[in-house]
Amino acid sequence: QVYLAESGGGLVQPGGSLRLSCAATGDFSAINSMGWYRQAPEKQRELVASIISDDDTNYANSVKGRFTISRDSAKNTAYLQMNSLGPEDTAVYYCYAGVRLPGGYNYSGWGQGTQVTVSS
What we know:
Largest sheet: 7 strands, mixed
Number of helices: 0
Order of helices and strands: EEEEEEEEEEE
Structural class: mainly beta
Distance between the termini: 40 Å
Number of strands: 11
Radius of gyration: 14 Å
Shape: elongated
Strand content: over 45%
Helix content: under 10%
Oligomer: single chain
């Protein structure tokens, strides 16, 4: 299994920045990918960003140029740097990790979610 500890959410004014962190622990042999989804009230959960490696990242169109995802493989931790935040970014952000278990099976785990609120 994989356990994900999220941190970094909070309240920020429009135009501000936040950095989310997601640290993975557990009994896995490798991390295939990490990323974040978000869910705003009365909206479906959407993919924000994902990373396999520094050269293999994916972003939602709505955050391209504003958000940057990175990963520290030595620490099994991913980061989401969010700049130029707007009210439309207000949501609960959920970290996920796709890992390979010792038996060779793939497994996806989720963090508890962290609230990001952009408001003046």
